[in-house]
């Protein structure tokens, strides 16, 4: 492994804060590190519509927003160590609104792949509010999601069976989305001021709208699958085994995975 090699810098603006951000990915031995701190030392911070994490740095708390798309690239490609992430800013850039750009950067870097550091040891089910996650041991990394939206034209299920090439081809390009009924509130909150229209899709009661690549009816479900893969990275996953998530969400995932570990459903390898 060519330690010290650096990819091209990735620049953009945060999805929610809209502030400029620059990310550098560097091959470096040891665990995944974000701004010099092992990723395992970061904790989930409750945030609306996204995953934010925080850790102590030089006696101060460093909070970083919208990490799920980058982490999805790590999880989908099976990269569990050997990379240092350096961020200038407080939120990762939205890039393509998905994980395709992050995957391309990790592939260009030559990031090492390895077996997942965790596994599902026994069957189990964990519920938080309306979210239900079911766990089952198996020899693959399998992640499935089922959504619960009233829009009849949507395909509400998506599944990934652990193949990195399939993740890059089918899951990573799925863009972030918003429901048409939410747009006014999002705009009023300033959350969409700097969003490239091609990096997001809009779902109304009749169809899925996109300004760039035509959207498919299952793209929102595939993006939820992408988000779940990214969130699982913070818990040593996606683990070896199968997870089926009904009504997945960022906050639900982090609480459910903490419970699953406490219950001995998910364990370190």
From TrEMBL:
<keyword id="KW-0444">Lipid biosynthesis</keyword>
<comment type="pathway">
    <text>Glycolipid biosynthesis; lipid IV(A) biosynthesis; lipid IV(A) from (3R)-3-hydroxytetradecanoyl-[acyl-carrier-protein] and UDP-N-acetyl-alpha-D-glucosamine: step 2/6.</text>
</comment>
<dbReference type="InterPro" id="IPR020568">
    <property type="entry name" value="Ribosomal_Su5_D2-typ_SF"/>
</dbReference>
<dbReference type="Pfam" id="PF03331">
    <property type="entry name" value="LpxC"/>
</dbReference>
<protein>
    <recommendedName>
        <fullName>UDP-3-O-acyl-N-acetylglucosamine deacetylase</fullName>
        <ecNumber>3.5.1.108</ecNumber>
    </recommendedName>
</protein>
<keyword id="KW-0479">Metal-binding</keyword>
<dbReference type="InterPro" id="IPR015870">
    <property type="entry name" value="UDP-acyl_N-AcGlcN_deAcase_N"/>
</dbReference>
<keyword id="KW-0443">Lipid metabolism</keyword>
<keyword id="KW-0441">Lipid A biosynthesis</keyword>
<keyword id="KW-0378">Hydrolase</keyword>
<comment type="function">
    <text>Catalyzes the hydrolysis of UDP-3-O-myristoyl-N-acetylglucosamine to form UDP-3-O-myristoylglucosamine and acetate, the committed step in lipid A biosynthesis.</text>
</comment>
<keyword id="KW-0862">Zinc</keyword>
<dbReference type="InterPro" id="IPR004463">
    <property type="entry name" value="UDP-acyl_GlcNac_deAcase"/>
</dbReference>
<dbReference type="InterPro" id="IPR011334">
    <property type="entry name" value="UDP-acyl_GlcNac_deAcase_C"/>
</dbReference>
């Amino acid at each position: 492994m060519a330690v010290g090699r650096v990819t091209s810098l990735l620049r953009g603006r945060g999805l929610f804060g809209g502030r400029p951000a620059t990310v550098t990915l560097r091959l470096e031995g040891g665990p995944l590190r974000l701004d010099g701190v092992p990723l395992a030392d970061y904790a989930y911070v409750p945030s609306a519509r996204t995953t934010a994490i925080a850790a102590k740095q030089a006696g101060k708390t460093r909070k970083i927003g919208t990490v799920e798309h980058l982490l999805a690239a790590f999880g989908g490609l099976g990269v569990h160590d050997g990379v240092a992430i350096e961020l200038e800013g407080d939120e990762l850039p939205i890039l393509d609104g998905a994980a395709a750009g992050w995957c391309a950067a990790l592939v260009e870097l030559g990031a090492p792949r390895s077996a997942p550091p965790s596994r599902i040891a026994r069957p189990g089910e964990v519920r938080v509010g309306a979210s239900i996650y079911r766990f089952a041991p198996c020899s693959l990394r399998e992640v499935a999601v089922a959504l619960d939206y009233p829009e009849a034209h949507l395909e509400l299920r998506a599944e990934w069976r652990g193949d990195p090439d399939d993740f890059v081809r089918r899951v990573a390009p799925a863009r972030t989305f918003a429901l048409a009924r939410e747009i006014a509130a999002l705009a009023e909150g300033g959350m969409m001021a700097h969003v490239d229209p091609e990096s997001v899709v809009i779902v109304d009661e009749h169809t899925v709208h996109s300004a760039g690549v035509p959207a498919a009816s299952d793209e929102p479900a595939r993006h939820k699958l992408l988000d779940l893969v990214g969130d699982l990275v913070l818990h040593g996953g996606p683990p070896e085994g199968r997870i089926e998530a009904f009504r997945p969400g960022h906050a639900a995932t982090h609480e459910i995975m903490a419970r699953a570990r406490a219950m001995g459903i998910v364990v370190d390898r």
